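Protocol step 4 of 6: structure prediction from sequence.
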Amino acid sequence: MKKNNIDVIFQKEINQKFSFNSEVAAVFDDMATRSIPYYRDNIHLISQILKSKKINSLCDMGCSTGNLLLELSQNLSDVRLSGIDNSSSMLDIAKAKAKAYGANINFIQADILDFDFNFDVVISNYTLQFIRPINRENLLLKIYNSLPKNGIFILSEKLISNNKWLDKELIDIYHNFKKEQGYSNTEISKKREALENILIPYTQEENIALLKKVGFGSVEMIFRFANFATFIAIKE
């Protein structure tokens, strides 16, 4: 990996809140792999789960640089794959990667709050946590109503815990993971500060309750490590 693709953003002073700008887009693949436990493994898990499902269309909302869609393109044949993101910098990289891999993926620059979904499967891979809580239920309801019967919504999210002791322990485990990936205590602290009130996590129970509230009959957690989890919700 080239040096300029390594995430060193928080080694310097940051005077603004976190955003998915061109600077972040340039190092996003390194950032995601080093900041999200089992990032690649979870993408592979999602791909394997969907492999045997008859699907005509799939959307990754908040697709960033297209890592999930590239994995899916290797395992899902004859499926219309689309990625939505509001960051042109992310989409430029996603399009270049798809072209390099010969993957047929439709990338759309749009705000997911305004987008009209029309897919068999919608995936939110660490995206919903960046949506303001006041907007989450309406977004999920819109997605639920757009899905066909037996349609699938997959949600990966960072979590918080109801128990303060457990929450602290899981955060410590996560910070140790990041240190093992080469991040310094200063970088970890600066990024956490930059993400404050930008990334707003829910508890495991709150995520499941919200998915069921909008109508999903079957909701299962298919992955969890410390304070990161993936849920699959099926419209019955």
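Step 5 (inspection) to follow. The CA atoms of residues 54 and 133 lie 33 Å apart.
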